[in-house]
Amino acid sequence: MKKSSIYRGIFLACTLVLFASCKSSKKEETPVKQLVDPYTGWIYVSEPHISVMNGGVRIELDGDNGTFALYSVNKAGKSNPVLATYDLKKSSFFSVMIDNAEYRLQNNYRVVPESRRTPYGAQMAYSVAGVAEIVIDFSFMPSVKSSDFVDMLRVTVYTINTGIETHTFVLKGLFDTILGENTGIHFSSAAEKEINTGRQYETMARDKWISSSDGSTSVQFILSGQGVTVPQYVTLANKEQTMQSWIPVVVPNQGFHSIHSYNNSALAINYKSCILDSLKSDVCTFFIAFASDEEVPNGEDFLASLEEGKISLPIYSTDDEGNIEVPLLPEYEGDSQTQADILYAQQLVNKIKNMDNVEKEEFEKLNKELDEIMKRLQQEK
After folding, report:
1. What does the alpha-carbon distance between residue 38 and residue 34 come to, in Å, rounded to a whole number?
2. C-alpha distances out from residue 157 to 63, 139, 216, 285, 321, Å
3. Residue 290's closest CA among 222, 195, 188?
4. Omega before 330 cis (within 30°)?
5. Alpha-carbon gap, residue 96 to 170, rounded angstroms
6. Residues with Cβ within 8 Å of residue 163, at least 6 apart in sequence
7. What's the farthest any 2 CA atoms get from each other in the chain?
8. Given the DSSP bridges, would you call strands 49-54 and 218-222 parallel, antiparallel or unpaired?
């Protein structure tokens, strides 16, 4: 990408923030300490424990242990877990392999976690072995562009080489699904309505997503489509099998049982390796759709909208009582969505400034997001 294009993008972003700032004024500072991640550009507040919800989705993060839990919220306001919660340190987590050493992203002697609140949700950040920072961002989103109802998360994993030497990085996500374990159908995809035995996919182009449901609550991992990072392998297997090797080994037509557990199914996502020089980064993105009250996750329509070029932007977060909450400085007059849009624009500015070499696809994506925020702010004028 030419430097002139980068400068054009920064100018556009700065113009957007200036426009928003001119129509507002700063309020008095609060004791909340706002920080900016120097690698990703995200604005955040560090908190030891975070529980944040919006619409039909709740995120809970434990900064002490480095764990996360995800919930679908029904119309009555009840939060139902979509992943196992019996032992968060052993259920769902991300791992990174640096060269040939594997690190589970949880609190241990080589990994230091931090939970962060952002204008659009929350993040887990991990400092790994003094040579990497991994940031997992969970941002609330609507599946329908014209709606403010949140029923999705955009999950973005940033891998940054903070060491002085070049290293090879590989990312893996493991999710201990529970919803289908007590029904006749463990999983489903766009291509298969019933999946009750192990699978390993080298492409998700046909299947697109993996869903798990108990009939009332459902979760859908969207692993193919516009804006989704292509995985190397997607595996459905017994939980123990997904942990026994970096790339799980699946026996064809084998159920989700093992010697130690019965009907214990899990989803593993393995990404391709990347070689990063010092201070370079890689990004993996996928989406999770949620549904309650016997409804179906809206991933199919969401993917169709993305193919048509319609972008759903992240939505501001709320506190435990459901109140709109943007606890970051600077604060501006106007509604909380406008405040969050301004902060998100600033985050994009920071990200663009920190990019040395910008891929055309990534730059166009950032420009699209900035254009959408500009339109939304202009409507508030």
Report:
1. 13
2. 17, 11, 29, 6, 28
3. 222
4. yes
5. 6
6. 130, 131, 132, 278
7. 65
8. unpaired
Residue 112 φ/ψ, nearest 5 degrees: -115, 115
Q: What is the pTM of this model?
A: 0.80
pLDDT per residue over 318-350, tens digit each? 555 544 444 443 333 445 455 556 656 666 655
**Unique residue bearing structure tokens 């192990």:** 198
Residues 126, 264: contact at Cβ < 8 Å? Answer: no
Q: Using pLDDT thresholds of 50, 70 and 90, give the confidence band for residue 20.
A: very low
The span from the first CA to the last CA of the chain, in angstroms, equals: 33
Give the tens place of pLDDT for each residue, 91-119: 899 999 999 999 999 999 999 999 999 98
- For 345, the token pair is 């624009």
Is the four-CA dihedral 159, 162, 166, 168 of positive or negative sign? negative
The answer to whether 97 touches 246, Cβ cutoff 8 Å, is yes
Question: Are residues 299 and 287 in contact, defined by beta-carbon separation less than 8 angstroms?
Answer: yes
CA distance 69 to 50: 10
- Where is 243: in which H helix or E strand? helix 239-244
- Provide the residue count of the chain: 381
Q: Would you say the C-alpha torsion 228, 229, 230, 233 has a positive or negative sign?
A: negative
C-beta separation of 234 from 200 below 8 A: yes
- The DSSP bridge partners found for residue 125 are 114, 135
